[in-house]
Amino acid sequence: MKKIDRFVIKSFIGPLVLTFFIVLIILLLQFLWMYVDELAGKGLDIKILGELLFQFSLSFVPTALPLAILLASLMTFGNMGEFSELTALKSSGIPLQRIMRPLIILISFLVIVSFLFSNYVLPYSNRQARSLLYDIRRKRPDINLQAGTFNNDIEGYSIKITSKDPFTNRLDKLIIYDHTKRKGNVSVTFADSGYIRVTPDESAMIMVLYNGFSFNEIEEKNVSAAERKYPSRKDMFKEQTVVLSLSGFDLERSGNELFRSNSWSKNMEELSHDIDSLTKTYDEKQRFQYLEFSRTKLYTERNYSPSSPAEGSSGISSGDPVKFDTKTLFDTLDVYDKREVLSRAIENLKDANSFLLMKNESMKMQIRYIKRYTVDWHKKLTLPFACLVFFFIGAPLGAIIRKGGLGTPAVISIFFFVIWYVISLSGEKLVEENLISSIAGMWASSYILLPVGIFLTYKASTDSVIMNIDTYLMFFRKIKNYVYRIIFQGKMKNPDNKSEQNE
Predict the structure, then answer these.
(1) Interstrand relation of 232-245 and 204-217 (parallel, antiparallel or unpaired)
(2) Other residues' Cβ atoms within 10 Å of the Cβ of residue 387
(3) Largest pairwise CA distance in the chain
(4) DSSP annotation string for 270-300
(5) Any idea where the domains of the chain sit in the sequence?
(6) Integer angstrom CA distances of residue 12 from 9, 401, 456, 502
(7) Which of 7, 69, 103, 305 has its CA 20 to 30 A from that of 429?
């Protein structure tokens, strides 16, 4: 390795490590912002919380690496341009492609590592992270009480609240159904307001209710169903304490097999196998539905021959099919029979249309399910390849703008990353809706941005000034001078127009 290669790699490694961890921390903060309500107040150990953050940080690596490479390449070549190091290398006869060559080799190595990580490590970390998050959600059901919906996390009870004060934890308009006896809704408690707290050992949940009543149906014995009177008892209260057992709600690890069937928890080999299996199932289902529709909803030509004693009175035989002229047959009917035939045809048409609509929605869900697997299969390749695309954007762009540091490169990196993310997300949605092919949708961001990177590399190699604002100001000044010249020459050619108009 030559000195120039060591110099460029050394200048790139530091910003890459720094920006990678910065981006990773930002993604983790976004995750915490989304799930803070489900994590807060659960009494989690530092070990459990650290494991959760570690597993999710692993799942963010394939997304954070391309952005880190874009930002690091901008910073590296921006710093080299700002401190005239890039100019010194070029003046020595070293072209930009030769300067970028060691980093191209390094990024290619990172692309391979990213692919192996996405294919083998990422599925495992996704299963671990999702399983642990699922176990944490089940740990304390009182935190999961949401206004306007019934909560059935506590076995034997169904609880609904109308509103919840986030500051005082006061609950309004509570409804509690007691299903512990498994006899239906025979015991109901209504309360105007209340509070919830968990015992220090987390073995029970205490609900203190105010201004309500309890409604209980009294069981009737030795009474037939026709003679039942459905007696009940209603008890009013101003304050009542209800203790609900939370046994079984400790943090119990469910294992990483819980989400084994999800597409994001599989590698490319497993995804390919599942895609083939699902496609075969879809084709068989499609053929079966076509046969079902053609046999039950369509009227086909029947083999018909005049009735004979040997073939029975039905007139159906195995002879050659006869072509029916429906218009001629319809014209032979009287008015009443025509109305009856038309009415029955309309009913059959509506029935067939309902059948097709129902089956169409079912097949759409099946296609969307298959496309979800296809999307995750292509993600194993598109995310690593994005590292190379972003490098060819960031390195020449940094050489052109010649601004180092973290400010300007960060703004430009976010701009290109947002463009890449929007294109990728749009293509992914179009693929899932089966509007475009998987290759066209999932690789759209790559074949749109890669030519941009090649163009920027060419401009940086030729010392273009496309990012210099004076270049554009000079262009507009030339246009302005050209317009003034045309106007001035027009006035010189017709100096008497004004005087003639005045006369």
Answers:
(1) antiparallel
(2) 22
(3) 121
(4) HHHHHHHHHHHHHHHHHHHHHHHHHHHT--P
(5) 1-139+259-296+333-462, 142-245
(6) 5, 17, 19, 74
(7) 69
C-alpha to C-alpha distances, 429 to 50, 361, 383, 423, nearest whole angstrom:
33, 18, 16, 10
> Taking the CA atoms of the chain, what radius of gyration do you get in angstroms?
37
Q: Is the dihedral of CA 388, 390, 395, 400 positive or negative?
A: positive
State the pTM of this model.
0.67
Q: What's the burial of 68, exposed, middle or buried (CB within 10 Å: 0-12/13-18/19+)?
A: buried
CA 59 to the chain's CA centroid: 15
Tell me the C-alpha distance between 377 and 443, whole Å. 12
Q: What is the pLDDT of residues 315-339, one digit of tens each?
A: 444 444 455 567 777 778 788 888 8
**pLDDT for residue 471:** 58
- CA dist 280 and 266 (Å) reads 19
- CA distances (Å), origin 53, targets 26, 59, 123, 134, 227: 12, 10, 16, 14, 62
Q: Report phi then psi at 28, rounded to 5.
A: -65, -40
User: According to the model, what pLDDT value does residue 318 have?
Assistant: 42
Which tens digit of pLDDT belongs to each residue from 288-311? 888 877 777 665 444 334 444 444
Strands 157-160 and 170-178: antiparallel
Residues 27-44: pLDDT tens digits? 899 888 888 777 766 667
Q: Specify which of 49-63, 245-259, 351-365 reaches the highest per-range mean pLDDT.
A: 49-63
Q: What are the pLDDT digits (tens) for 67-94?
A: 999 999 988 988 888 888 888 888 888 8
User: How many beta carbons lie within 10 A of that of residue 405, not counting itself?
Assistant: 12
Quick: pLDDT tens for 463-476.
765 555 555 567 67
Residues in the chain: 503
**Amino acid at position 490, single letter:** G
H or E segment to which residue 88 belongs:
helix 85-91
**Cα separations (Å) of 70 from 80, 276, 390, 435?**
16, 36, 5, 31
First to last CA, the chain: 87
User: Each residue of 142-164: pLDDT tens digit?
Assistant: 556 778 888 877 777 888 888 88
Say how far apart CA 389 and CA 468 lie, in whole Å. 24
Percentage of the residues of the chain whose pLDDT score is greater than 90: 19
Cβ neighbours of 169 (radius 10 Å)? 14
Q: What is the per-residue pLDDT for 247?
A: 62
